[in-house]
Amino acid sequence: MFTKITEYEGITEYKLDANDLKVLLAPRRAAPVVAFMVVYRVGSRNEAVGHTGSTHLLEHMLFKGTPTYNKQNGTQVAAVLQKQGAVFNADTWFDRTRYYEMLPNDQLELAIHLEADRMRNSFIADSDRQSEMTVVRNELERGENDPARILDERVWALAFREHPYHHPTIGWRSDVEGVPTERLKEFYDTYYHPNNATAVLVGDFDEQTALDLIAKHFGGHPRSPQPIPPMYTTEPQQEGEIRFKLRRSGQLGVVEIGWHIPEARHPDTPVLTVLDHVLSAGVTARLYQALVETQLAVDEHASSSQFIDPGLFTIDATLNQGVAHETVEQAIYAVLDQLRTEDVTDAELAKAKNLILTQMIYLRDSPFGVVNAIGEAEAIADWKFYVDLPKQVEAVTAADIRRVINTYFTEDNRTVGYFIPKEEQL
Amino acid sequence: MSNHTFAARTRRFALDNGITLLVLENRVNPTVSLAGYLRAGAFFNPQGKEGLASVTTSMLNKGTAKRSKLEIADALESTGARVGVSSNTFTSSINGQSLSKDLPLIISTLAEELREPTFPAEELEKLKQRIVASIREDLDDTRSRAYERMSQLIFPQHSPFYRISAEALIQQVEQLTADDIRGFHQQYFGAPGMILTLVGDVDADEVRALIERELGSWQGAVAPQIDVAETPLQAAPHREIVAMKDKANCDVILAHASRLRRLNPDYLAAMIANRALGQSTLSSRLGLKVRDEMGLTYGINSSFSESGIADGPFTISVTVAQQNIDLAIDTTLELVREYRTDGIRPDELQDEQSSVTGSFKIGLATNGGMAGQIASAELFGLGVGYLDEYPSLIRALTKDEIDAAIRKYLHPDVMTAVIAGTVD
After folding, report:
1. Which of B157, B202, B241, B295 is found 20 to 30 A from A187 (Cα to Cα)?
2. What residue ranges define each of the domains in chain B, with the CATH number in brackets?
C-alpha cells in the first residue's frame, strides 16, 4: 500500500502507492494527543489578476461541507472538531494552503477521515460562496485597518512586478468580490489532489494503525487527471531603487525596506537566517541597539523570508514621535554598512545560532510545533529543510554574513516605503 | 492509576518565607517551563498613577545591583532562555522557558530582578517613551478604542476594570518617577503569597534546593488582601460611537457587568453557557448565524474576559463593515434573547462537555500548558488535585445548571454597545 521512501531524524516518509500522496510520520509519545496537517502545494503564487485571493477564499469554502460533514446533518467540519476540543484551522500563504487539527489521540481517525473527505468531496456551492465572500471581505477590511500591514503589502507589490508574490494572499478587493464560484471549483479540481499534497502526523500514535487509516480514507482518491500546472513566472532583476509613500490617518510613522533574496532552497538561506537574528533578535541585537536604544524608533523587525521562489529580506521600524523617516532609514543603512567591512563578533554569531537551535528544541514541546515546522518546510522546499536548517546554520561564518550583505543589500535591489500619518507634514 | 494523577505527580513545597513551589517532572524534552504569580497588579496603582504596576514589572530587567540591562539580556539571549514578569489586573505573572541545563540561569536572573532591581532613571525614560508610543498606536486601533470606551461605560471610575482614556494614561505614565517605581516595588513585591511552578526535565529536589538558594532568604512585602465590590448590572441599554478616520472595518463590543468570579459556585456552568453561545466563531451559536449564515463578519466571540479574582465584563465582540452594524447588533442580541428563553440544547451541552475535556487534555500536552494550569489552580486555592477532578466536574453539569447560569449571567436587554470605526 505504501512505499517507504526514507527515514531521517525520527521522521519517516512514505508514498501512498494508489495516488502518490506523500505521508510523513513523526511519533512522539509525550502526551495522548496527535496533530495532523494536510499541506497542498497551492497558494496565492498560483493566482493571477481576476482571481487573486481565490486560494484563500477556497480554503474558507472547505469548511462549508461535504455530503458527509455538513450543517444539515449536524456534522459541520468546525462543529465535529470543536466537539473534540480540537485546536484546528486552515490558512493560506504564498506557496501553500494547509488544514490542520490537534486533538486527543483517540480521535485520530476523525482527523484523517475529515481531511481525506474534504480533499475531493467539498460542495463549493454558489450560495455558500456568496455568504463566505463577505466574511472574507471583512477579514480583508480588518487587515486594511493596520497601516504597517498595508505598508508591507505595498513593499511586496512594488518589489515584485511580474511574479505573483506581487499580490497579497487575501487578494485584491474587487477580485475577492467578483470571482465566480466556477473559478473556485476549477481551482479545487486543478490543485486539490493527493499527488499535490503532503499529510503530516505528529504525536502519540501507532505507526501501522495510522498508515492503515490514511490508506483507508485517502486511498480511494485517484491521482489528478491532469498534471499539476507549474507556475513559471519569474521576477526579473530589479534595476534601481524603488521608493514610495503611503499617507493615511494614523499615529506613528513606519519605514520598511525590502531587498530581493533567493529562494528557500538556496545555500544562502541559513546565512540570511543567522543575519536576521544578528540584526533583530533581542535587546542585544544590532538594529535594536541602533534604533530603539537610541530612541529613534519604538520597535524594529528584520525578517528573512523563505519561499519556493526568491522573496524579500525586510526590515521595518516604527518611528518615535518627531523622528524623521530619513533619519531612521539612514540609521538602518549604517547598521548594514558596518557589516560590509567588519565581521560580526564570535559572540554574536554564537548567540544567533544558539537562539535558532533552542527555538527548534522548544517547538518539540508540542506536537503542533513539530507539525507546523514540517508542514512549512514541505511547502517551501522539502521536509528535510526543517531538520537540516539548524545544521546548516551551525556552519555559517562571519565571512558568509559579510558576503550576503554585499551581495543582496544594495541600493539597486531595494524597495523603500514610508507610512506617513496624515496629520504629520513631511 | 493514582500515580498518574497531577496530584500524585506534582511535588508541592511551602518555603519558610511564604513561597509556594510546585514541581512536575516531565522528561520527554530537555526543556523546562516556569509559570507563577506575585500578588501585585494594576489594582494597587495609586490614584493618578495608572500604569505604575506595568512600568514596575517592565523595569525589573532594566538593571540590578549586580548587572546592567545589557548584561542580563546578553546572558539570557546567549542561551535562548527567557524569563519575565508582567502585570495583570490583580497579580503579576512570572513566565520563563529554558533548556533544562540553563534553569539555574533563569532562576538566578529572576531572583536578582525581584530582589535587587535598581530602576535606572535613564532606562525609565526610554521605557516610558516606548510605552507612550504603544498607547498612541492603540489610539489608532478600533478594537482597543472600543474596549476602552466600553470599560468606562460599564464600570465605575474606581473599578479595577475601568480604563482611563489613552490621553490621560499617557499623561500619567509620563509623570512616573524612579521613586514611584521603587516605592511600588517595596510595597507590593515579596515572597509571601508568591507561587512558582516548574514543569519539565528537572529533578524536584534539585529545583527546591535551587529556589531555596536563590529566593529562600527573600522577604519583601506581605501580600495585601484584595477586596473588590461587585459591579452591579446595568439598568438600561446604551449605545455609543467612537469616531475614527480611514477605517474600513468597525469593531463593535456589546457588554454588561458580568457579576461572575472564578470562585462562584456556578462558574463552570457559566463558562459552558458562554462556550455554546459564542466562544468559537466557527461553531458557536453566534458564529453559525452571524458569520457562517449571514456572512456579516470574519469574527464574532463572546467571553467572560476577566472573571477571575473579581467580576469583569461579559462581552460580545464582532468586527463588521459600517453598513452592517445595525444588522449585526440586532441579530446578535436576538440570538442571546432566544438562548435565554430556550436554554442550551441537550446536544449542545454534550458537545461542549466533550469539547472542554478534549481541549483540557490538549492544553496539558506541553510543559508550558501544565505549568500555567497548575499555577492558576494554586492561585485560586483550588489545589493541583483540581486538574484531576476537572473533567468529571464538567461532565456532571446538567442542563438545568447551565440554563440557570444563562439566566443569571446573560442580559441582552441591558447591553451597552460601543462601535469604533469610521461611521458616516
Report:
1. B295
2. 2-215 (3.30.830.10), 238-421 (3.30.830.10)
